[in-house]
Design goal:
Blueprint: H1 9-33, H2 35-47, H3 51-78, H4 82-97, H5 105-133, H6 139-168, H7 170-191, H8 212-215, H9 218-248, H10 253-282, H11 289-310, H12 313-327, H13 331-340, H14 347-376, H15 379-400
């Protein structure tokens, strides 16, 4: 066997810089997204909304998110991604800043939809760019780091959103989040480089260069459909849990935000890191580890989520923490599974397809469906819907492990495009 060449120092430095900056922007991305759940009770009161209408804010965010994803996927496979990432980041910051001028429910929906366009663009371009810096046997580790930003950003969104809204109103919470996004966009512009697109002999069974090949790719379809089911559960829980704590436990916005923020950052980060580490070790013995780890997470979270929603108040927070930890076990591995399942020239398109399925079948309908059930019964029953999708996710991931591809061990991309 020929010796594998060591990656150049410049390649490692370029990959590390990209990982740090894009992870930082992913952190801001999720901070912005989770401000709304933290302040939604104030928004609901000001505009006199039902739970159904509050859930629609997230629905329109994801309608725009999904509608733009095919275009951004095509752009990401055809053109340099760095300038598009910078534009998307600045657009996200601008939408948060302009929230100060929102004074009607319709304009709030439009603002939230525009934010979805920026977040969809970043969510497609950034993982595809990182995939060209890291070989597929190292991609899980890199994407685990990238995805640690999800629970950390969500936690700060809860904490900052609830605290700022309590003292300065909900609009100021969005304005405050615009500043770090604009700063990181400029850092990406000046310090991150575009990697070469890796081209290797991957998966002969795939019809390289054709989008239709994705529809025949069982490894890819299993990863994105299982992730969509998890996202339905996680998205619904994340959006409605602050309201659940406010209504069922009598906590004010600040207290609900602090509780959700603390649980999300500790348990979410812990689950992401532990899941990524376990999957990386397991991957040496079982090529299906990137599917089996999310399956274990989803199925083992089920009983804890059940206790959280329907058990006594004394068990709500411990059960919520355990469920969040377990759900996040699969965050890094499932994204690596998606990218490993496709050829290099279709990565941005594959991520666009993932985001489309993730949101059409995941968190786009979940918040509204839970809101409708809540309006007709109560929030406990609404959240109970997420238990079904956790079970579905586990079954899909177990099925997908049978089709996991063999891994390559090439070095990181070493030259700029």
């Amino acid at each position: 066997m020929a010796a594998v060449p060591k990656p150049r120092a410049g390649a490692i430095a370029g990959a590390t810089t990209a990982l740090i900056l894009l992870t930082a922007m992913n952190f801001v991305n999720y901070l912005d997204r989770y401000i709304l759940p933290a302040v939604q009770e104030q928004v609901k009161g000001e505009f006199r909304l039902t739970d159904d209408q509050v859930g629609s804010l997230t629905l329109w965010f994801f309608v725009a998110y999904v509608a733009v994803s095919p275009l951004t996927g095509w752009l990401g496979d055809k053109f340099p991604r760095k300038p598009m990432i910078v534009i998307a980041a600045l657009g996200i910051a601008a939408m948060n800043f302009f929230t100060a001028s929102v004074h009607s429910y319709m304009s709030l929906n439009l603002r939230h939809a525009a934010l979805g366009i920026g977040e969809a663009s970043f969510g497609i371009f950034a993982p595809a760019l990182l995939a060209d810096f890291y070989a597929d046997d190292r991609r899980n580790a890199a994407l685990t780091v990238f995805n640690v930003a999800i629970p950390v950003g969500a936690a700060l969104g809860y904490l900052a959103g609830g605290s700022i809204a309590e003292s300065h109103g909900w609009r100021m919470a969005f304005i405050a989040s615009a500043i770090p996004g604009a700063i990181i966009a400029l850092l990406i512009l000046f310090f991150m480089r575009e990697p070469a697109r890796t081209v290797v002999a991957e998966k002969a069974s795939l019809e390289k260069g054709t989008v239709l090949s994705l529809l025949k790719n069982k490894a890819y379809l299993s990863a994105i459909m299982g992730y969509a089911a998890v996202t339905f559960s996680l998205g619904g829980i994340s959006f409605w849990m602050p309201a659940f704590l406010h209504r069922m436990d009598g906590r004010n916005l600040r207290a609900a935000g602090i509780v959700m923020g603390g649980i999300t950052v500790v348990c979410g980060v812990g689950g992401t890191l532990v899941g990524g580490w376990l999957a990386q070790r397991w991957l040496k013995k079982n090529k299906g580890a990137l599917y089996l780890m999310p399956a274990i997470g989803a199925l083992s979270a089920l009983p804890f989520a059940l206790v959280c929603f329907f058990g006594p108040k004394s068990t709500t927070l411990p059960a919520l923490g355990a469920a969040v930890f377990l759900i996040f076990l699969g965050t890094g591995p499932v994204n690596a599974a998606t990218l490993n399942a496709v050829p290099a020239n279709l990565r941005a398109t594959a991520m666009a397809g993932q985001l489309f399925v993730l949101h059409v079948f995941g968190d786009m309908p979940s918040s509204k469906i839970i809101g409708i059930v809540s309006d007709h019964s109560n929030l406990r029953l609404g959240l109970g819907i997420t238990l079904v999708t956790m079970l579905v996710a586990g079954i899909i991931f177990i099925f997908g492990a049978r089709y996991a591809p063999e891994l390559h061990h090439n070095i990181e991309a070493a030259t700029p495009a």
